[in-house]
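Table S2 (text version). Query chain:
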Amino acid sequence: MKPSTHKIVDLEFSQKYDRKHAEAYYRKHRQGIWRRWSHAREERVSRQALILAGQPKLVLDLPCGAGRFWPLLLEEHGRQVIGADYSAGMLEVAQDSHPGFMDGRVRCLQTSAFSIDLPDAAVDSVFCMRLMHHVGKAGDRMVLLKEFHRVSRDTSIISLWVDGNYKAWRRKKAEQKRVHRSSQNRFVIEQNRVEEEFAAAGFEVLGKIDFLPFYQMWRTYVLRKR
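Corresponding structure-token output:
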């Protein structure tokens, strides 16, 4: 089967990640106590998700950014990773920052998550961290989910912002007080709504892991193809 020919959804923020911005993004998660703790917590959540997904051996990390999760993904013996991103700058920084991983276990691919340049059932699992909260339109999310369903043989691991917690309540209250903004690039999605979208795309929910239950918006879903 040929790779997808879906029209690429152009997210507003995606054009900014040239080499300079990619390097700044790489440094950001290593600065300050809070960011380092947050990264460690994300790694813990990701390990739990990978266990729920059955410790897949071939993982598509999309978007891989600057390779922040490559050391984690390669903790599992024998696992191989396709590190994919829409930004050439991100991929350059990822490769330069992780030379020890470029020994055959990580292969880089420049592609869009909305039209993945891979054939059907190409990987065991899709690992998608910190992308879906940028996708505000249900139709765009469906394109994304159907691409994940197409290229994965078994599971997808997806993080996003959901409602039903303190941070989401505070964000909603703050937005009600703001003057209307013409653009927005981060979105909270209702839990019931996104789970309905998962089902419509052909997934069942294997598990869900909250970053900090009842407080933070971040939730990671582990999905299995039906």
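Notes on Table S2: Helices lie at 19-28, 33-52, 70-73, 88-97, 138-151, 166-177, 191-200. Residues 81 and 106 are 5 Å apart (CA to CA).
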